[in-house]
């Protein structure tokens, strides 16, 4: 199933992402993407596929050959997928272990457009100077892999880590900004969600938000809300919020 963005229905055709999508009648999907197509998916000549640049440009076509060099695709059509509205931004406190990439994976599948790693006061994980590049690279790789799996033509942006002050600036520019908090009185279901602009969601760390962070975010214009009676893990709370938002905007 596709959303109403003018994208042709391809009956579940797989999507491959290239850094560059040349304007040629034939495309070569090589490297890791090509190996996955040939060795794992075992695609054969005649099958329909899509190839995108991760920024909304997509070429669709038919496999011409599949072998050690990769997948050769004869292009039959090209189209541009517009950015969805509203834009969803997830401010994700750094989780411990592999839960960071998991949070990115789930959020990507559920429609996030921008992911902001946040160094909250109570984060167990800390990206020191020599670990920032590695951490961001892991999150970006997770976003790219999840985009292919969910056949999203636009890979979410993963920004550099932000401090609490920088996050406040981001929240101040959003059309709707919410902070997930288990002690909040207002349910997320009671919010009026705009159908355009930017919607930002803040998810705290395992140890929870400090009072100072909540005060700072409220001062920036964000509203504390609760998803439901359960307290979710930091790695899944963002995905749950995005699903709730999508059900009221993009999935209608």
Automatic annotation (TrEMBL):
Record SUPFAM superfamilies: alpha/beta knot, PUA domain-like
Catalytic class of the enzyme: transferase
CDD domains listed in its UniProt record: RsmE-like
GO biological process: rRNA base methylation
All copies of domain Ribosomal RNA small subunit methyltransferase E methyltransferase, residue ranges: 87-245
Database matches in InterPro entries: Alpha/beta_knot_MTases, PUA-like_sf, RsmE, RsmE_MTase_dom, RsmE_PUA-like, tRNA_m1G_MTases_N
E.C. numbers: 2.1.1.193
Alphabetical UniProt keywords: Cytoplasm, Methyltransferase, rRNA processing, S-adenosyl-L-methionine, Transferase
Reactions accelerated catalytically: uridine(1498) in 16S rRNA + S-adenosyl-L-methionine = N(3)-methyluridine(1498) in 16S rRNA + S-adenosyl-L-homocysteine + H(+)
A Pfam family of this chain: PUA_4
Gene Ontology terms for molecular function: rRNA (uridine-N3-)-methyltransferase activity
Coiled coil: none
Main location: cytoplasm
GO CC entries: cytoplasm
Localization (cell): Cytoplasm
Ribosomal RNA small subunit methyltransferase E PUA-like domain residues: 29-73
Entry's family note: Belongs to the RNA methyltransferase RsmE family.
NCBIfam families assigned: PRK11713.2-3, RsmE family RNA methyltransferase
Its job: Specifically methylates the N3 position of the uracil ring of uridine 1498 (m3U1498) in 16S rRNA. Acts on the fully assembled 30S ribosomal subunit.
Name the UniProt record assigns to this protein: Ribosomal RNA small subunit methyltransferase E
Annotated source species: Blastococcus aurantiacus
């Amino acid at each position: 199933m596709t959303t109403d963005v003018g994208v042709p229905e391809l009956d579940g055709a797989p999507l491959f992402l290239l850094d560059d999508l040349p304007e040629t009648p034939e495309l070569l999907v090589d490297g890791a993407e090509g190996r996955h197509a040939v060795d794992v998916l075992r695609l054969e000549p005649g099958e329909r596929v899509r190839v995108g640049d991760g920024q909304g440009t997509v070429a669709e076509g038919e496999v011409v050959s599949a072998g050690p060099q990769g997948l050769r695709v004869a292009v039959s059509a090209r189209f541009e997928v517009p950015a969805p509205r509203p834009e969803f931004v997830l401010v994700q406190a750094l989780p411990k272990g592999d839960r960071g990439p998991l949070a990115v994976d789930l959020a990507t599948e559920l429609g996030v457009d921008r992911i902001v790693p946040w160094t909250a006061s109570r984060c167990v994980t800390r990206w020191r100077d020599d670990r920032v590049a590695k951490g961001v690279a892991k999150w970006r790789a997770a976003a790219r892999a999840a985009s292919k799996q969910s056949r999203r033509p636009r890979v979410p942006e993963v920004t550099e880590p932000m401090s609490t002050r920088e996050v406040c600036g981001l929240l101040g520019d959003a059309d709707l900004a919410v902070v997930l908090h288990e002690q909040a009185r207002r349910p997320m279901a009671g919010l009026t969600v705009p159908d355009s602009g930017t919607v930002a969601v803040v998810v705290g760390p395992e140890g929870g938000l400090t009072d100072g962070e909540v005060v700072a975010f409220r001062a920036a214009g964000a509203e504390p809300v609760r998803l439901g009676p359960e307290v979710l893990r930091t790695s899944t709370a963002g995905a749950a919020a995005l699903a709730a938002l999508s059900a009221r905007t993009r999935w209608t």
